[in-house]
Amino acid sequence: MTFGGTARPHRSPSPLPHRNLKQEFTERQGLRQRPGPDDAIHLAGLGFVGTHHRGVDDARNIAQLLPWILGDEQIDPRRVTAWEREVKLRQRR
Questions:
Q1: Rounded to 5 degrees, what are φ and ψ at 6?
Q2: Where are the domains of the chain?
Q3: Which of 1, 2, 35, 83 has its C-alpha lying 20 to 30 A from 11's C-alpha?
Q4: Half-sphere exposure (CA, 13 Å, Cβ side) for 89?
């Protein structure tokens, strides 16, 4: 969300470095394109929990994906192939 038409990153002190979990998911799973949250959850064989863009629900959904981002879980290659075909079809529309 932005106020006054300007967007700036929040500058709150944190002892932890920033991590781009979308990028890490994409790289860890060997995907050619970066999936959005809905697609990532579907690729992992999970179901979306709650309401999109509601902070606590988004956090729960990201937490569901952590084994595929930081752990050893791998997406079924058949899901990846089907998703990549679907993405190509979406791009043609």
A1: -115, 145
A2: 21-92
A3: 35
A4: 6
